[in-house]
Amino acid sequence: MTHPIGIDFGGSGIKAAPVDLSRGDFAADRERIPTPEHSTPKAVADVMAALVDRFPEATGPVGVTIPGVVRSGVVHSAANIDKGWIGTDADALLTDRLGRDVHVVNDADAAGVAELRYGAAKGRTGLVILTTLGTGIGSALLYNGVLVPNSELGHLEIDGHVAEKRAAASIMTNEELSWKQYADRLTTYYRMLEKLFSPDLFVVGGGVSKDATEFLPLLEIETEIVPATLRNRARIIGAAVITSE
Questions:
Q1: Candidates 2.60.34.10, 2.10.109.10, 3.10.20.600, 3.30.420.40; correct CATH number of 5-106?
Q2: Which pTM was predicted?
Q3: Which numeric CATH code is attached to 120-229?
């Protein structure tokens, strides 16, 4: 079985699964190991090696998501992980530790590629913007099927505030906002994205997307907006897709 393996590296857990690229789904049950308290590159590489060893029949390359900016395999920012990742050539480190080809990608970019290949954006042309609403706001820009990496649109400044500090799903919880109040925040955010990019489609991911019917109809924007369909599988699937191309 030559399935690639996708690994999703998050602040609380590291999750992995082999991916069947013909179906766009896991080829075996996902495995999870808690992220080490000190999530240094070496400590995390050891966990990823242990996860890969759980899938001895999946002999393909490995794709890894990182919650940060990644350029040519080098990590340039570190959200919710050890700052020792900044400046690390993660492609080289993990390829050496895991003993097979490894490609590292921003986590939201991986989710965007998965939704484009198998999910809510499949078959769509023009500019698709995926946003993941969670602790912060991640983003992926996809133009005619091509990823424009590291967009980081959650860090836009709107009305004197960083966007994700006003409109992330965590803010709704922390400030006890109603769905209408949260939708108003999102309307402001997506209108700014419309002004800057004139997209053809928004795809909304992140855990809150399961409640899309509660807030998407309340948004007052011009662009079509739909919930993501792959949900918490998207990052692993997208990482496997990207590493196999």
A1: 3.30.420.40
A2: 0.95
A3: 3.30.420.40
Which tokens is 80 given?
């919710």
Q: What is the pLDDT of residues 153-177, one digit of tens each?
A: 999 999 999 999 999 999 999 999 9
Backbone angles phi, psi at 80, to 5 degrees: 65, 20
Q: Are 194 and 201 in contact (CB under 8 A)?
A: no
Q: Is the pLDDT of residue 1 over 70?
A: no
Helix (H), strand (E), coil (C) string for the chain: CCCCEEEEECCCEEEEEEEECCCCEECCCCEEEECCCCCCHHHHHHHHHHHHHCCCCCCCCEEEEECCCEECCEECCCCCCCHHHCCCEHHHHHHHHHCCCEEEEEHHHHHHHHHHHHCCCCCCCCEEEEEEECCCEEEEEEECCEEECCCCHHHCEECCEECHHHHCHHHHHHCCCCHHHHHHHHHHHHHHHHHHHCCCEEEEECHHHHHHHHHHHHCCCCCCEEECCCHHHHHHHHHHHHHHC
